[in-house]
Amino acid sequence: MAWQENLYDASFRGVEFEYFGVDDSQDKALATHQAPYANDADIFDMGNNPKNINMTAIIDGADYEQALENLLNALDAKGNGELIHPVFGAQEAICASYRVKHDSDIVDGCTIELQFIVSGSKRNIQHFTPEPMPAPSQAADSIILSAPAEELAIYQEQLDAIGTEAAIAQSRSIPETIRSKLREVRTNLGTNLVRVDDLLNPPVWLGSIVGDVDGIVKMLPLDYDPMNNWRRLFNRIKAIGDVFGDSDVPPLRRTGQVLPAAMTSRGVIEILKEEQRNPTLTPSDLIAINDEARQQIQEAIDQVRADDNTQNDQSLPVVNTDITPIIRDLKKAAAQLQALTDATINSRPPLTKHTVTAPCTWRLLAHLLYADHTHADELSRLNRGLVDASVIDAGIQVSCYAR
């Protein structure tokens, strides 16, 4: 029976990929003792070096960008992961390096040269299996902004079609209002005052201002208490308030009512993406972040419901008073964030309590619990707030991941 009849589906950390070519290599760990000017030497066999696996992955198809992001997140995650070798099956391995190659003749695909090193230790626990993030067009922030942006675009088209003096005046006022408000928003966020020219295209300028959150998240330092950084981000978004609350354009007011919820949702998604690459938050931190986003979404729902869209000027377009689609999308976004947060928490081992029996440090405790001192940073992160983390006294209960 040939080996190709029993091939496994290749994957790493649960992310499957197509491949061609697998190269396994193994070399000896040798100690050479040779005297000066001697032509021979004593060779001591010190065992085997870790096994190397080189593979070439192929990513292509309509969902190529999302599939590539999922695989790169799995490769970037810290520590060992389960590698399904096409011939030898499941193995614990670390991705030592990878190289993504795009060819100008293939616009919807790429190849990735992968190098794995097999880990012989069975004591390391799997901390994180990345969960696929939604595509940008299906993410919570896009869901929230979809209906208001469409309403605003239709309203602007109707103003141009009516052509009355009042309609022309309101049509001209909308871009200037948007430009001045975007300047205020970016001042509150502390981001660059980027010029947005296409102010008549709501998805463009809304995407521009929501996209500022990505840059803020990437620039936040992951210090001893990263939750303080996320709270500062959410407070800056809250400071924006009801951006277009004083506007006499109902669709523009409605867009401003949901904008902070969309920005907060984008922030949560970016935080969860960062957690896949480099876990720094505890389950309780993630729950608090999700609760913050859901509260912001609830405030948007309350504002949309409370807004009076009646319009006295009959020379202007009739405003859509059906808020059902907007409320439905806000609730859908909240459900998506909840599902992503739950998946991130559940992908980690369960938390448990351990009572320290003798004074120690995080590094000693990590060696005791996991036989691996490198989990010291993880224990410190899970137990923020101890008075003196340099010496952990006997009798203190600490949180740790179950082995």
Describe this structure in words.
- Strands 2-1-7-8-9-6-3 form a 7-stranded antiparallel sheet, covered by helices on one side.
- It contains 10 helices and 11 strands.
- A hairpin with a 3-residue loop joins strand 7 (81-85) and strand 8 (89-101).
- It has helices at residues 64-76, 140-162, 165-189, 202-219, 226-238, 250-277, 283-306, 324-346, 362-370, 376-382, and strands at residues 11-12, 15-16, 18-25, 28-33, 42-48, 52-60, 81-85, 89-101, 109-118, 351-355, 397-401.
- Helix content is 45%, strand content 18%.
- The longest helix has 28 residues, at 250-277.
- The two termini are 39 Å apart.
- 29% of the residues are buried.
- Mean pLDDT is 83; it is low at 122-128.
- The chain is an alpha+beta fold and 403 residues long.
- Helix 2 (140-162) packs antiparallel against helix 6 and helix 4 runs parallel beside helix 6 (250-277).
Helices and strands in order:
Elements: E1 11-12, E2 15-16, E3 18-25, E4 28-33, E5 42-48, E6 52-60, H1 64-76, E7 81-85, E8 89-101, E9 109-118, H2 140-162, H3 165-189, H4 202-219, H5 226-238, H6 250-277, H7 283-306, H8 324-346, E10 351-355, H9 362-370, H10 376-382, E11 397-401
Antiparallel strand pairs: 1-2, 1-7, 3-6, 4-5, 6-9, 7-8, 8-9, 10-11
Helix pairs in contact: 2-3, 2-4, 2-6, 2-8, 4-6, 5-6, 5-7, 6-7, 6-8, 7-8, 9-10
Q: Main β-sheet: number of strands, strand sense, barrel status?
A: 7 strands, antiparallel
- Roughly what percent helix? 40-55%
Quickly give the structural class: alpha+beta
* Low-pLDDT sequence parts: 122-128
Number-wise, the strands total 11
Shape: elongated
Terminal residue distance: 39 Å
* Residue fraction in strands: 15-25%
| Overall average residue pLDDT | 83
Estimated radius of gyration = 28 Å
Order of helices and strands, N to C?
A: EEEEEEHEEEHHHHHHHEHHE
Number of helices: 10
Q: Order of strands across the widest beta sheet?
A: 2-1-7-8-9-6-3
